[in-house]
Amino acid sequence: MTPSDTSSGAPMILVVDDFADGRELAVDALTHAGFRVAEAENGIEALEHAQRLAPALILMDLALPGVDGWEVIRRLRADARTREIPVVALTAHALKTQAERAREAGCRGFLTKPCSPRMLVDEVRRIVGSTAR
Amino acid sequence: MRAAVDPSSRPRRSVGRAGKRAGGSARIALIDALSECSDFSESAEVLLAWIGRWAGISRGVVLGPRAGGALSAVATHGIDPADAGGRWAEVADGGLVAAFEATEPGLIELRAGTPSATALGGGRFHAVPLRQPELGAAPALGLLLVAAQEAALPPDIAWAARALTDRLAALEHARLRRAEASGDEVSSRVREATRELARQNEHLRREARALEQASAMKSQFLVNMSHELRTPLNAILGYTELLLDGVGGECTPQQRKRLERVESNGRHLLAIINDLLDIARIEAGKMPLDLETFKIPVLIDEVIAEVEPLVDRGVITLSRELAPDLPAVTTDRRKLKQIVLNLLTNALKFTPAGAVRVEVGPEDGGDRLSIAVCDTGVGMSAEDQRRIFDEFPHFEGTVAGPWTGTGLGLAISRRLAGMLGGEIALASERRKGSTFTLRFPKRLQS
């Protein structure tokens, strides 16, 4: 069960969350599931990583300080280099309107906190279509 | 004050020299003297003294009205005051009362034997009602009686009676003004009290607003707090799950058992936090209604499917009984489902063995529906039934098993039922079972 961050063939997931423990939980779960993982703790960092690393998927907490998740999604969509990267939104608000809004903004998936690592990995696998492990 | 009548001692109050006819200065002297009088009797005395001096009247009396229609002597002239005091206290002889009520002066003859005739010594009298002609039928202020020397009323007496009347009217006005002033005092006190009341009302309004705000803040605090509690709890549950999944290497059976305890307690804590959040949201008015039209049987099936895996079919019969042709309902589906799920979970939790049945039927001619969850479980005493909808009620007879509750389920269900325009009724008997019945309108207006 060695984290497979060295296996260059595995898809890379960018995890964006300002809450370190929550972010590392996702990182651990995804790493354990065989993905390569990059982290960003704010919106600007997320945009930089997205452009530079071209991840297979971005897992994004919508409630970020400063440039929030919605704005990051808008900028990703406006940039040809990042337009096609699927985004899974992560939010603490279990409101139907939030899920709809996320879908309208172009998110491919929507997860509500608290979200178990298993559910998170399942959702990422569903979109990336990887069985990396 | 009686001394004031004496012209020698108080020149200003003098009513002038003796004489047969009162000239201008004598009349001015009467006006002056009257203007210094402060009440009826003083004025009447001044008048009688003036008449005695200027009209040469030997006997006279001024009568004032008394309660009950009687008249009483206010001042006398040429009559022994002691004598008059005793006998004139009150007279209501017909002749005098009629003269008092008359509009014009007249000549009267006091009937012999009456107290007034005895006191005045008999004979004819000029009776002059002290009345203001401009006030028409208003009652006279008094009655002037003077011994008549001739049939015609002497002009000086007529004039003096008028002067006295004016003075009495002025005094009356002054009294009314004073009364008004004290009336003003009363009304100003009333105004002050009204203002005070308004101030207190405003104070209470402000306090009510402050309480409302405090309550809203409390609810907002709970919402925020629940959110803050969930974030770290999410990490605790997440890492526990990762460890159980073998992220840090395969767990020993001992470690696994302990981690599972962390997980189940964490999940229970999460359920409580979620319920608290629900209550806080409802109370803060932050749980909006989300209306949709749907079929009840589908919802019932969903709820049953959710609890099914936890039902031990060997000892529990779980069934549903739906009335035919149930109409589609328009209400908040999620809230309705939450209530039914809660009632059903509760029934299963308190039924160690037996039957649990969900019954759906129309109510009130079809405008409302009832969803009843009946069980043959442990039931409740009347005392417990009163507390069952409270937050965190504790009862005996909780069945060990897969059913965990937060102690907030029924409290939430009751609030949710209220939001749907409905209510939850309970019928229960110890060791026989319980029936919780939700009744709600078929069509909820937003």
List strands and helices in order, with pairings.
The complex is a heterodimer of chains A (133) and B (446).
Chain A: E1 12-16, H1 20-32, E2 36-40, H2 43-53, E3 57-61, H3 69-78, E4 87-91, H4 96-104, E5 109-112, H5 117-128
Parallel strand pairs in A: 1-2, 1-3, 3-4, 4-5
Helix pairs in contact in A: 1-5, 2-3
Chain B: H1 24-35, H2 40-54, E1 60-65, E2 71-77, H3 81-87, H4 94-101, E3 106-109, H5 115-120, E4 124-130, E5 142-147, H6 155-244, H7 253-283, E6 291-294, H8 296-307, E7 316-322, E8 329-332, H9 333-349, E9 354-363, E10 368-375, H10 382-387, H11 409-419, E11 423-429, E12 433-441
Parallel strand pairs in B: 7-9
Antiparallel strand pairs in B: 1-2, 1-5, 3-4, 4-5, 6-8, 9-10, 10-12, 11-12
Helix pairs in contact in B: 1-2, 1-6, 2-6, 6-7, 7-11, 8-9, 9-11
Care to give the gist of this entry?
The complex is a heterodimer of chains A (133) and B (446). With 133 residues, chain A is α/β, with parallel strands linked by helices.
Any descriptors?
heterodimer, A: 133 residues, alpha/beta, 5-stranded parallel sheet, 5 helices, 5 strands, 18% strand, globular, disordered N terminus, B: 446 residues, alpha+beta, Beta-Lactamase, Helix Hairpins, Heat Shock Protein 90, 3 domains, 5-stranded antiparallel sheet, 5-stranded mixed sheet, 11 helices, 12 strands, 48% helix
Cα-to-Cα separation, first versus last residue of chain B: 86 Å
Report the β-strand fraction of chain B as a percent range. 15-25%
Strand order of the largest sheet of chain B: 2-1-5-4-3
Shape of chain B: rod-shaped
Query: What is the share of helical residues of chain B?
Result: 40-55%
Query: What's the shape of chain A?
Result: globular
The biggest beta sheet of chain A, please?
5 strands, parallel
What structural class do the secondary elements of chain A suggest? alpha/beta
